[in-house]
Amino acid sequence: MTKLLHSTCLLICISGVIGLAAAAAGHPGCKTRCGDVDIPFLFGIGDDCAIHKGFRLECNATKGTSNPKPFLGNFEVTKISMEDGKVWVKAYMSTQCYDQSTGGMSYNDASANLIGSSFWLSYTDNKVTVIGCQTLAYMTTDSYVIGCSSACDNKVNKLTPKNGSCSGAGCCQANVPKSIQYYQGYFNEGYNTTKIWMSSPCSYMAVMETASFNFSTSYLTSSVFYDTYKGVVPVVYDWAIITSKTCEEARRNKTSYACISNNSQCIDNLTNAQGYRCKCSNGYEGNPYIKDGCKDIDECLNNATYPCKGICTNTLGNFTCSCSPGSYMMNGDCMPKKKLRFDSVPVVVVSSN
Fold first, then answer.
1. Domain boundaries of the chain, sorted by first residue
2. What confidence tens digit (pLDDT) does each residue in 282-311 have?
3. CA dist 307 to 286, 295, 300, 301, 303, Å?
4. What is the pLDDT of residues 183-193, one digit of tens each?
5. How far apart are CA 353 and CA 340, in angstroms?
6. CA distance 177 to 141
7. What digits encode the pLDDT tens for the residues 75-91?
8. What pTM was estimated for this model as a whole?
9. What are the residue boundaries of the EGF-like calcium-binding domain, all occurrences included (predicted)?
């Protein structure tokens, strides 16, 4: 059997990650949005708009569309979270399909290379997802081989694929390890659909966001899975500033320390054991990477999150909840004070003459 192999590699090219951008304190004139995606600083579009080149994005219109989209290297970016330190991108899936013209299998093994960048596969948000009726596929890295097998033979294995279920019957998933910056998709050639291609022509392997996936049995008998995602699936990356390994080290270099807003704090990147991120202190919100970017939260405007059944008074970084005169606080409620009652008591006056 001839193996037709096509490799799709997504690469983030990083250069100059050590030096911070010259205009790292607010970036007047820089775009803050590309198409439908907000671009908060430390990310930036074009030259000198990101904290350093590792967070530089390009805002380009893709072929056949007029609406521009942000790209991080070759990855299309769909969302950025400053608070959680995550970025959502689209990455290629790996495919294994029967080729009628050759009578063999055609493979497209996708890969991603983030080595040297500020990004890692999120091990909490992604899984290795394999779809197929006779499929064994892996995500291979420098240190790991992570994968699983899926089958549809309900006579031998009593496996019946069901919508919404991904536990080995037509679909399986495996956890992503921590600190992964490179992977290559791979199919075991001993498991393929040569003999069942009329009912199940293709198999798929994708490293993708767990919350975005819901298995459908139609994925086994048609190209619905590929067509739904147009060959690219949502993936979540963790990010951190890697100019310093820890917050302690970062604070020693005042010129490159990124947490420049008042009322901000530094967080070590414990998930991937390298770098740091910034966050606004409790009671503040905004962007800790720009001057005065962390603003006081007016808790009194959000009673659902900060309940107060009395008189709410906002303070810097906090709030107080008090009761009006004549009442007192008990279990979060203002209770009226009980008036003291003085009952009539007979008074006996004794006099002695």
1. 4-8+89-239, 247-296, 299-336
2. 999 999 999 999 999 999 999 999 999 899
3. 22, 20, 8, 10, 5
4. 999 999 888 77
5. 38
6. 10
7. 999 999 999 999 999 99
8. 0.83
9. 296-335
